[in-house]
Amino acid sequence: MNTKTEKSTASTQISEAFLSLRNDEQAAHLMRFFKTAPGQYGEGDKFLGIRVPVTRSLAKKFSNDVTLHDCDILLGSEWHEIRLVALLLMIKLAQKCAKARDLEGLKQIIGLYDRRLERVNNWDLVDLSVRDLMGIYWKCTKDDYEARRLFLSRWATSGHLWRERAAMVSVYPLLRMGSLDETFWLAEHFINHRHDLMHKAVGWMLREAGKIDRDALRQFLNSFCTQLPRTTLRYAIEHFSPNEREIYMKQ
């Protein structure tokens, strides 16, 4: 993989393209939606007011010219949408590495993502990046359960909201690969988490686990439903029958 360190023209061109599309009215709406006011989880984040489909289109346009160093530069941007395009471009680079069986290049991408997770600083940035990146990584490396758990433990025990959410959401590709253990382990680990964004993430992944093995989810809920935050429980049992949902909620 090309990781040249000189200032990249691609990152400059991408930034200029995004700045040219600035929409202040839409930006104001997004800043309210993503809770950027003082004391809120997205405090201080800045938006250009560019919709995700446009960002994806620009990522596709520049995907053949970008390097991992470009992505690193873009992750340093003050603008939310530019950090998002950096993450989408990292996914495209990871896909290329997987296709070329470039495991070393893929490890470099995941290493950058790990180091720069503080710049992946809102739930949409986490959710739109971690599932694809970690899914590609685990399929290529074929890490066993213990290796995956060791990796996820660093994020889960960090005390950093976005690393914690990244840990929880990254079990999604593992569920698709048929491994449910990480989901139930992390759901138990985060059972007393205080933040609503983690309650939703845990419930979401439990619901996905239930789509694969409803009995395994029931077994988990029978052990922990009285301790789960109500938001988590509501998400987890969304696809249960009305009668069964009522039984669990009353507990």
TrEMBL record:
<dbReference type="Pfam" id="PF08713">
    <property type="entry name" value="DNA_alkylation"/>
</dbReference>
<dbReference type="InterPro" id="IPR016024">
    <property type="entry name" value="ARM-type_fold"/>
</dbReference>
<dbReference type="InterPro" id="IPR014825">
    <property type="entry name" value="DNA_alkylation"/>
</dbReference>
<protein>
    <submittedName>
        <fullName>3-methyladenine DNA glycosylase AlkD</fullName>
    </submittedName>
</protein>
